[in-house]
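G., before I forget:
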Amino acid sequence: MSLVRYHLRHDTRYEYDQPVGESHQLLRLIPRDMAWQRTLSQRIEISPEPTRQAGFVDAFGNRVRTIDFETDHNALKIRAEAWVELTPREQPPEAILPWQDTARALDYVAGKHYDADLLDASRFLFESRHVRVKREFAAYAADCFGPNDSLLSGTTRLMARVFEEFTFDPEATTVSTPVTEVFETKRGVCQDYAHFMISCLRSIGLPARYMSGYLLTRPPPGKPRLIGADATHAWLAVYCPCAGWIEFDPTNNVQPTLEHIVLGWGRDFADVSPLRGVLIGGGSHDPEIEVTVVPEADFHEVYRDVEDAPAPLLPGID
Amino acid sequence: MSQEILATYPHAPNRFDEMVDVRGEARPHWAPLVQRLDAMPAEVLERRAHIVRESIEADGVTYNIYQDPAGRGRHWQLEPLPLVIDAGEWGPLAEAVAQRAQLMNLILADLYGAQSLIAEGLIPPALVYGQHAYRWPCQGITPPGGIFLHHYATDLARAPDGGWWVLGDRSQGPSGTGYVLQNRLIMSRTFPDSFRDMQVRPLASFFRTLQDGLARFAPTDGETPLTVLLTPGPYNETYFEHTFLSRYLGFPLVEGQDLTVRDDTVYLKTLRGLRRVHAIYRRLDDDFCDPLELRSDSALGVPGLLRAARAGRVLIANALGAGLLETGALLGFLPAIAQRLLGEPLKLPSVASWWCGEEPALEYVIQHFDELVIKPAFPSMRMEAIFGHQHKGESRRKLIQRIEAQPHAYVAQEWVRLSQAPVLSPRHVKRVLPRSFGMRLFAAATPDGYAVMPGGLTRVSPREGDEVVSMQRGGLSKDTWVRAEGPVVKHSLLKTQLGVMDLVCAGTDIPSRVGENLFWMGRYSERSEVIARLLRAAMLRAASSGLEAAEALPAMVYACRSLGVLPIPDEDADTPELDLETSLLAAVSDLTQAGSLAANLQRLSGAASQVRERLSSDNWHALNRLHQLLHKPSADFEDAMDTLDEAMQEVIALSGFAMDDMTRDEGWGFLIIGRRIERLANQSLILQGVLGAERRRRDRSLEWLLETGNSIVTYRARYRRSPELLPVVHLLTFDATNPHSVAFQLENLRRYLHRNTRMLGQPRPVQLDVIADHLHAFDLTRFEASECDVACDELAKLLFDVEGAAYGVSDELHRQYFSHTAKAERMGGWQ
């Protein structure tokens, strides 16, 4: 069994025009534990020191850290670090049920009994802030789902179609661009790819959830791995009654195996935004964000000669 | 006995009539009222109807209708005939409403908890997970005492067979109780005789139950509970009701920014400090309540409120997320749910309804289109009800297509022929006409179940045959008289007459928001004044062809830039600098330029609108005139100078009102302090620029300095010669008798700071003592000597410190009294 370990570092820095006296922030920066992903150690450093810190688990099971400030400050820096260990995700059998059976399994009839899994899947079946359920999306998906196709082959085909027809373009969208507009322009970033494909799946009655996390990137051939060269990533998972949640990454046209690290999931981005906050007084700009994903083998190479190297955090020590 | 009223009353045969039976005779419980009306001379009835209308206006009862030209402040409509309900009928009806409230509470507890109703197939997932009104962040929160629904309302109609049907449920923050009270106050004093004859049940005990319920369930940790009424503000349709209920129930009326959450505890920000809030009676929709976890673009909410709820540190009535039950799609599922959760049948039937998300229901709806009313399954869809029989052919085909595309978003209800209640004819003397009506009943949680208000909000359609009853659509309201079995004892939460103990001198607990906005009103009006004076002086010189004028301009431009009135040119920019005339005109009226006069006037209006209730109407009119100046473009200097003159006039009027016209409480103190701080900082800043300039430029600036400091008349009267450095500096800096001097501001600022901090029970502030001593000690004879330049430099440095001290005081006041935050001891050291 192959097993990989990564060091994650996610830096966020806000600079404020005016001193901020009161600020409340929610952080969803703690990797989620699952059968094939384990957080070995993890910490979040915050500067300046918050007036208070606490945590809770949200309705989708993600761990949330809350920080509050009641003292004037001009900047806020948050560094989340973790060591995680991944084993390959279990691959679903190719010959799983036709996709319509999944849709049908979710249909409501009076008095129907929902087990825990089906109840959970039902939460990801409807519109949410960034996901629309519309005929246009259903029509787009329909071309990929033949009447006898399995859920796996249909979704794989849909992913390939999105990957082929859409152009990755960070300039084309913002976090508030509606998914209908993404459909028109066929341009956007991983978040838009994920929201669009989720819209297509839900529009044909398939439960789909939004996955938030990181992706291991490869430095150009011959170049060293650099600090801050990575980014947060988004993809999705579709529910199959017999195989559970199966992940798809339409931005890269792959099914995640060992290189997608999961922070959390929800109905869409709004449920799992890594940072969300409210300031009272003071103006804010977009934060500077720097993400670094390093395989264990490269760790010392990458952080050698770096002043603020994350030395004290060792795998297995929480 | 004459039968005038009944003889001319048209009676629709296929509908139930409240007043008369099928033979056209008065129902027994209406008989005393009908007799009174018959016996009443026409002109008496006329006069009483008139009194009702007058009372509505005199009491300022309003209802804001969106997209109405009458808009904000439209008068509430009260129809002078009450709706009468028989004591025998009321008992079971109230019991049924109480049962329904209890059921609704249990449904909320399930849907925000275990969700077994979904798991067992009793509620389709689409009606929960598919609703925007389902607030995911509220999942798993158990409110104090397990009560989600403290205040519930249900909209009823009477069917042709005389039975009551529920048309909809109100679970978010039902409106109407304040209007019910207001209607009752007016009706009981206008028709005291009938009111007495009819033995109408009083309403006051219901409100006491509501108060007690909140106090009983609130987590108080042994403290006396403080309940506040959270309103979205004056633009909300039922704002009148919020202010009325706030006074009646004794709950301070607050907006989101009045509250803060610290350590999972909610506090009211007051000028005297933070006061813990134990219960929030909210009239703000839940999505707007916490920008941290709910709608992030909401400026109306309280960041962190959900966490306080999660920690069980505050009672929120109704619980966040309770709006979920307002969907009409749920009605059809209630009988089975009642059996499951209560083990008994639902006592109050809903109007027959079909949720189109179920295939058989959809088929039924398409086949019986004529008999149905189509409604959105989710109130967030903001769609009007559609009567199936009004749509034929192509229009029907399209409608059905729309439903088929998203069946779970629609629900169909049986088209109910609403029963009729009598209204006074607006055209004929002493004639009564039947109109369709609906009735909203209210329930409140108590430790022993739900109590139902013995009364309600009856709404009648304004026109004959109209089927939709809604205040938003121009409906009329009626007082609802529930008759008691026997004589009634009257009591009210309102005192009939105020006593000495009730006398109020000054607001005891002024919210920080009020103090803050008064403070900024002071600052912005003062800033607008100095900007107007400075721009006026600059324009006069820019328009002149004289050499002296031209030489004065650079220093004025410098002053404008340091005050932010003119933008500081960007040396790297590709675009050429604008010519002076264009820049000066933009500084008057360009709203997009942050330091312009227009932008400051706009901020002034914004601050003033937050404290409107504290401003006299004269004050308000001056603000309105200033606001109008915002939209007056200036084509040339002549236009612009007119605008500047007008602005100055109004701003000076405002300062007059402040001194003459306002109650001198702590709030007023902040207004004056704001004015002094602003003038202190601006005057110091302008003087610094001139003192720091080289000699010739300095001398050329003395005249405009006197103009912008509004001291030219004093100077001329005192010295009768052209301006010279020493007397000008003395008059504008050191002369404490000149209301535009630095010394005057400093002295008065210290005085008002002392006064206010004393009123608020705080120690005397000392920040300005040292700087005042320095200013006092400055040796003016140094300006006589040849080292005059050195004296100028040193005074400029001192004024720089004065300016800094002024802003320091402003920041300190902000932290201590408005935001209740701390000053940073040390900025983050970790890189």
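Chain B has a mean pLDDT of 89. Chain B touches chain A through 48 residues (CB under 8 Å).

More on Monday.
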